[in-house]
């Protein structure tokens, strides 16, 4: 009986992960406000009622997706820090920035983070999820890099600029304004 219960829990956890991964694509396409749990359920190949067994409402599903995306960002930053060409804050921050720039080439992740920031303006639970995600990232970056407050702030400011550059596909536009914004910023 205990083994059977574990198997059920494992299956529910696997389904939850499947729904989260599927929901990333759905929310990336249409955002928090434009995506329904019916669409997520259909994409995951499960019933809407099963989605509601896993997540009590769309808000909980979306905030879980946001948390999942921040977890992916953290893993990317950890990988970057581990591959840094030195232990100086500049080297670690540069390696983390490069890893992040590669990560947001995944347009779905970039779109979910962008939609989350937009929804955070009016949705308290989403705002809390975005705040918590950034709080964890800032503390990780500060600790892993040993960077000063201005260095950590610059790291995140460049990351936001990188979001903007990738979302506008500025690499496809050769103009003075794109060169100004892109100067010294890696994006893929």
Helix content: over 70%
Summed up, the helix count is 9
What is the 3D shape?
A: globular
Tally the beta strands: 0
Secondary structure category: mainly alpha
List low-confidence stretches.
none
Sheet bearing the most strands, described?
none
Protein model, in words:
The chain is mainly alpha-helical. Helices cover 80% and strands 0% of the residues. α1 (2-34) packs across α4 (58-82) and α4 (58-82) packs across α5. The protein is globular, with a radius of gyration of 19 Å.
Summarize the structure.
The protein has 188 residues and is mainly alpha-helical.
Map the helices and strands.
Elements: H1 2-34, H2 37-44, H3 48-54, H4 58-82, H5 89-103, H6 107-120, H7 124-145, H8 149-167, H9 176-182
Helix pairs in contact: 1-2, 1-4, 1-6, 2-3, 4-5, 4-6, 4-7, 5-8, 6-7
């Amino acid at each position: 009986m205990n083994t059977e219960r574990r198997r059920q829990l494992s299956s529910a956890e696997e389904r939850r992960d499947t729904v989260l991964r599927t929901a990333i694509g759905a929310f990336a396409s249409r955002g928090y406000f434009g995506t329904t749990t019916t669409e997520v359920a259909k994409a995951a190949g499960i019933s809407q009622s099963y989605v509601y067994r896993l997540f009590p409402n769309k808000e909980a599903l979306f905030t879980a997706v946001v948390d999942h995306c921040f977890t992916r960002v953290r893993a990317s930053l950890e990988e970057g820090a581990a591959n840094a060409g030195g232990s100086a804050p500049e080297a670690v921050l540069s390696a983390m920035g490069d890893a992040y720039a590669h990560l947001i080439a995944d347009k779905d992740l970039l779109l979910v983070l962008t939609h989350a920031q937009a929804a955070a303006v009016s949705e308290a639970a989403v705002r809390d999820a975005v705040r918590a995600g950034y709080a964890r990232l800032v503390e990780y970056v500060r600790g892993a890099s040993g960077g000063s407050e201005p260095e950590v702030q610059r790291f995140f400011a460049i990351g936001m600029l990188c979001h903007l550059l990738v979302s506008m596909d500025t690499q496809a536009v050769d103009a003075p304004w794109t060169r100004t914004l892109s100067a010294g910023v890696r994006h893929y």
